[in-house]
Design brief:
Elements (H helix, E strand, L loop, with lengths): L3 H14 L4 E4 L4 H12 L3 E7 L6 E6 L6 E3 L5 E2 L4 H8 L7 E6 L2 E4 H6 L4 E7 L1
Antiparallel strand pairs: 1-3, 2-3, 4-8, 5-8, 6-7, 6-8
Protein backbone atom coordinates (compact mmCIF):
# COMPACT_ATOMS: atom_id res chain seq x y z
CA UNK A 1 0.00 0.00 0.00
CA UNK A 2 1.42 3.33 -1.06
CA UNK A 3 -1.37 5.85 -0.61
CA UNK A 4 -3.98 5.60 2.19
CA UNK A 5 -6.48 7.72 0.21
CA UNK A 6 -6.34 5.35 -2.78
CA UNK A 7 -6.76 2.38 -0.45
CA UNK A 8 -9.75 4.00 1.32
CA UNK A 9 -11.62 4.87 -1.86
CA UNK A 10 -10.96 1.43 -3.39
CA UNK A 11 -12.27 -0.22 -0.22
CA UNK A 12 -15.44 1.89 -0.27
CA UNK A 13 -16.03 1.26 -3.97
CA UNK A 14 -15.47 -2.49 -3.64
CA UNK A 15 -17.89 -2.78 -0.74
CA UNK A 16 -20.46 -0.64 -2.58
CA UNK A 17 -20.32 -2.92 -5.62
CA UNK A 18 -20.86 -5.97 -3.39
CA UNK A 19 -23.86 -4.21 -1.77
CA UNK A 20 -22.38 -4.24 1.74
CA UNK A 21 -23.87 -2.03 4.47
CA UNK A 22 -20.54 -0.98 6.01
CA UNK A 23 -16.79 -1.22 5.55
CA UNK A 24 -13.62 -0.87 7.61
CA UNK A 25 -10.94 1.45 6.25
CA UNK A 26 -7.47 0.85 7.58
CA UNK A 27 -5.10 2.65 8.17
CA UNK A 28 -6.73 5.86 9.31
CA UNK A 29 -5.10 9.20 8.57
CA UNK A 30 -6.07 12.86 8.89
CA UNK A 31 -6.40 13.24 5.10
CA UNK A 32 -8.66 10.19 4.80
CA UNK A 33 -10.77 11.43 7.72
CA UNK A 34 -11.28 14.86 6.15
CA UNK A 35 -12.16 13.38 2.76
CA UNK A 36 -14.63 10.96 4.36
CA UNK A 37 -16.33 13.81 6.27
CA UNK A 38 -16.61 15.79 3.03
CA UNK A 39 -18.13 12.79 1.22
CA UNK A 40 -20.49 12.31 4.17
CA UNK A 41 -21.63 15.94 4.01
CA UNK A 42 -22.57 15.42 0.34
CA UNK A 43 -24.70 12.39 1.26
CA UNK A 44 -22.73 9.60 -0.40
CA UNK A 45 -21.92 7.73 2.83
CA UNK A 46 -23.47 7.54 6.29
CA UNK A 47 -22.00 7.56 9.75
CA UNK A 48 -18.22 7.47 10.21
CA UNK A 49 -16.74 6.00 13.38
CA UNK A 50 -13.05 6.11 14.34
CA UNK A 51 -11.80 2.92 15.98
CA UNK A 52 -8.58 3.30 17.99
CA UNK A 53 -6.81 -0.05 17.89
CA UNK A 54 -3.57 1.15 19.50
CA UNK A 55 -1.76 1.29 16.16
CA UNK A 56 -2.83 3.46 13.25
CA UNK A 57 -6.57 3.32 13.82
CA UNK A 58 -9.47 2.43 11.55
CA UNK A 59 -12.61 4.05 10.20
CA UNK A 60 -15.92 2.20 10.20
CA UNK A 61 -18.08 3.67 7.43
CA UNK A 62 -21.81 3.12 6.85
CA UNK A 63 -22.66 2.75 3.15
CA UNK A 64 -25.89 3.79 1.43
CA UNK A 65 -25.32 2.34 -2.05
CA UNK A 66 -25.19 5.75 -3.75
CA UNK A 67 -21.64 5.65 -5.13
CA UNK A 68 -21.12 4.76 -8.80
CA UNK A 69 -17.40 5.57 -8.94
CA UNK A 70 -14.81 6.92 -6.52
CA UNK A 71 -11.17 7.32 -7.47
CA UNK A 72 -8.13 9.13 -6.18
CA UNK A 73 -6.30 11.21 -8.78
CA UNK A 74 -2.63 10.39 -9.26
CA UNK A 75 -0.56 12.42 -9.96
CA UNK A 76 -2.17 15.16 -7.94
CA UNK A 77 -2.57 17.90 -10.50
CA UNK A 78 -2.11 21.54 -9.53
CA UNK A 79 -5.10 23.58 -10.63
CA UNK A 80 -5.79 27.29 -10.58
CA UNK A 81 -9.21 28.70 -9.73
CA UNK A 82 -9.95 29.35 -13.41
CA UNK A 83 -8.79 25.86 -14.45
CA UNK A 84 -11.08 23.86 -12.17
CA UNK A 85 -13.69 23.53 -14.91
CA UNK A 86 -11.18 21.73 -17.19
CA UNK A 87 -10.63 18.99 -14.59
CA UNK A 88 -14.34 18.95 -13.78
CA UNK A 89 -15.05 18.04 -17.42
CA UNK A 90 -12.26 15.47 -17.38
CA UNK A 91 -13.22 13.54 -14.24
CA UNK A 92 -16.96 14.06 -13.65
CA UNK A 93 -19.69 12.66 -15.93
CA UNK A 94 -21.77 15.87 -16.06
CA UNK A 95 -21.85 19.39 -14.69
CA UNK A 96 -24.29 18.78 -11.83
CA UNK A 97 -23.29 15.23 -10.99
CA UNK A 98 -20.49 14.28 -8.64
CA UNK A 99 -17.91 15.98 -6.48
CA UNK A 100 -14.25 16.69 -7.12
CA UNK A 101 -12.17 17.01 -3.94
CA UNK A 102 -9.33 19.52 -3.81
CA UNK A 103 -6.63 20.30 -1.29
CA UNK A 104 -6.38 24.09 -1.04
CA UNK A 105 -4.69 26.54 1.32
CA UNK A 106 -8.10 26.79 3.01
CA UNK A 107 -8.28 23.04 3.64
CA UNK A 108 -9.89 20.07 1.91
CA UNK A 109 -12.89 21.38 -0.09
CA UNK A 110 -15.15 20.46 -3.00
CA UNK A 111 -14.65 21.96 -6.45
CA UNK A 112 -17.78 24.14 -6.00
CA UNK A 113 -16.44 25.65 -2.77
CA UNK A 114 -13.02 26.25 -4.36
CA UNK A 115 -14.64 28.04 -7.31
CA UNK A 116 -16.82 30.20 -5.06
CA UNK A 117 -13.81 31.14 -2.88
CA UNK A 118 -11.65 31.69 -5.99
CA UNK A 119 -8.99 29.28 -4.72
CA UNK A 120 -6.82 26.81 -6.53
CA UNK A 121 -5.09 23.74 -5.17
CA UNK A 122 -4.39 20.12 -5.96
CA UNK A 123 -6.93 17.59 -7.20
CA UNK A 124 -7.13 14.71 -4.70
CA UNK A 125 -10.12 12.62 -5.75
CA UNK A 126 -13.54 12.53 -7.35
CA UNK A 127 -16.76 10.73 -6.53
CA UNK A 128 -20.14 10.36 -8.21
Amino acid sequence: MVDPLVNALNTILGHEKRHKKECIICPASNLVGRVLRLIQSKGYIGEIEFIDDGRQGKFKVQLFGRINDAKAVRPRYSVKAKGIEKYEKRFLPSRDMGVMILSTPGGIVTHEDAKSQNMGGRVLAYIY
